[in-house]
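From the pipeline queue, job 12 of 40. The input is one protein chain; the requested action is below.

Action: predict structure.
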Amino acid sequence: MNPELRDLFEIKQNEEKSRQPSQQNVWRHIIIRLAVIVPGLLYSSL
């Protein structure tokens, strides 16, 4: 494989890895969503 193409391919792989959210951010997002949705559902059922 051409060295230049190999470099571009490695850069693309690194970008894909860095786009994945960390597990901590995923759990934080889920907790915030639940903290908004649950009181909203309770309030709307009154």
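Job complete. The two ends are 66 Å apart (CA to CA).
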